[in-house]
# Entry
Amino acid sequence: MMPLPGRHLTSVLLRREGDLFLFDCGEGTQVSLRSLNLRWKKINTIFISHTHADHITGLPGILMLSAQVDRTEPLVIIGPPIIKEYIETSRKVLNMYINYEIEVREIEDPSVPQVVYEGEGYKVRSFPVKHSRVCVGYTLEEDPRPGVFFPEKAKEAGVPVGPMWSNLQQGKDVTLKDGSTVHPEDVMGDERAGRKFSFVTDTMYKDSIIEEVAGSDLLICEGMFEKDLAESAREKKHLTAYQAGIIASKAGGIKKMGLIHYSPRYTEKQLKKLKKEARENFENTFLCKDQMVLKIPNTD
# Structure
């Protein structure tokens, strides 16, 4: 709700191969980005959950800073309705110097889960959550990966080492000199799941979230209040840490959950209580901190 020393407002940077995605852009986001040894200048897409100030006030700084680093690629910004108005008004009032293309895509009907962005090998979905303003959560999910390639099976099938091995790994049939055909499934294991990242913040408890985030390798979820303040959380349409744990537990397949978006009433020491309450339902819970770097490995 407000920035504190050592605790900036909500923002998560996700790096996948050569792509960088920013989820929300709270005040001061550019300060943390400049402190990290990442090619943040290559951010190609920003996903906004909703237009409350603590989630978007960092955008003008990011837009202006990007104009100072010789950016050439377009910047895509995706979010609920009025995000376009906010950006256009900010540019006008601040008389921004922008020397690159900004493409704003508003989610026309945020109440419907939908694919809002896709690239080679992955898709980003938005889904509705329940807050005092129109708000969405996001998942980035990779396409399934090919199964493990077994060289010994390829040799047994008579496939010579070389381009044919590569073709099989890409899911293509190959024809041998004797006219026989070897199929990918003859020399490869079962298809493997890709990775999944989920981002949920500023919402009261909502059963439909569970299905959307199921199977996440990493779930970043708000845990704003402790159980004793459940009524306040309900009135303000936020989650308690205990409820975040319920979501992670019921969703199934979630490997770990990071709590985010804490109430400023909690000191750093008091945040341990939120973690403890979330762990009552989902043990593999941790507290997100500024500039924390996490890896999301593939699992075979």
